[in-house]
Amino acid sequence: MKHAVPSSCLVRHLDRRRRAARGLWRGRRWLVRRQCRLRRGQPEELAAQLHARLVLLDRTVAESGASRLRDARCLLRSAEVHELPGRAERHRSLERLPEHGELQPVLRRGPQHRLWRLRQRPRSPAAAEDPLHRAAVSRRPAGLRRGDVIKAINGVPDTTLITGNFSVLSGAAGQQITLDIERNGTPQRVTLTAADYALTPVSASATLTAGTAKVGYIVLKDFIVQAEPELTSRLNAIKAAGATDRVIDLRYNGGGRISTANHFASEVVGPRGVFTTLQYNSKQQASNRSFTLTASTAAGVFNRIVVLTGPRSCSASELLINGLRPYAQQVSTIGSTSCGKPYGFNPVESCSNTFSIVNFKAVNSLGQGDYEAGITPTCAVADDFSGALGDPTEKLTAAALGYLQTGNCPATAAAPSADRARALAARLQRAGAEPGERRGMTAD
């Protein structure tokens, strides 16, 4: 579809009766010229967006009024943020950045095109009451468990949902949906009622054993401020239990705040030095800054740290692994290759919108940070989605405990390759995002 383009890119086509708003006209001139350059060999979608902005700008100026003029200036600023990637500082163009690993739907495609239940958030309407996830909800939870295979939603079969969309999962509080599931080969039917509930970024912790050694296990889903007091509390309990090793489960953690990652690292290794440094481009070296590890009551001497990873371990999750390596005696990863995103952004507010444009690259205290291809696991183990997170018999947890006990990787099915892991994560990103999902790595 072709979009109308002014017959000429000259200023004479501007409304000379509005010359008082010179700043707006300069902005409109830029939009016109930009649109003219897009007529040949450029995406039609971008041309359409520019044309729509021209129409809206003309309408805004024609209506005049101070507030409308401010709206027009705001429109121009948003156009510049959207359409002028060259004016946003970056290490490389956004088109070349990996676009995977940051959006995580509750449901996902299985190897035979099935819908799997990856996990449940504690206190959510879908939560199951197992030893590690005791849901405190006002109504009886649906009792979904990790590893349940969803065969139909409201009678719509899983094959249709996979090729269609997940909009059936969205609804107002009180709305109900019926799931036909398969648990350990047995068909069941459960009803979910939509409700508001508080996010629980630290969803599980436990003290496990690997041979004679005690191992502290903890799951972190989001690097958000709400996680920090809970991290401190649970890690103190793990330390008090006498754990000498740690297993950190980040397989479903898409990232979040760098300050929270710094807090987590401080709780693990204490005040050891620089955790990470944010490096801006050559024109913004004055913006470079470091996050330093601080003192913590939960920090202690831990012989080994094992991090469980997957294609959705992204951004701040990878930052935590990379930042701990110079200080811990041993940091190993078990699972599959992480998403590969050592980049982050400073959010920019404009016209009631927030634009997240890549600004910096993060490195650890040794200057290491080039993991665009993802962090390759020490032991490649495929996640089979069975068992509760933190259960010592769950596949990745069992692999971590076995590795800590013997020092050997388990003889098990290998995890997806790095390319396969990124392709999987990209499909999941297109499928949609879970409410409350953290996206990317934010400098704060």
TrEMBL record:
Tail specific protease domain ranges (all copies): 214-379
Coiled coil start-end: none
An example Gene Ontology molecular-function term: serine-type peptidase activity
Superkingdom as given in the UniProt entry: Bacteria
SUPFAM superfamilies: ClpP/crotonase, PDZ domain-like
Protein name stated in the entry: Tail specific protease domain-containing protein
Assigned GO CC terms: outer membrane-bounded periplasmic space
Pfam family, one: Peptidase_S41
InterPro entries: ClpP/crotonase-like_dom_sf, PDZ_sf, Tail-specific_protease
Gene Ontology terms: biological process: proteolysis; signal transduction
Originating organism: Piscinibacter aquaticus
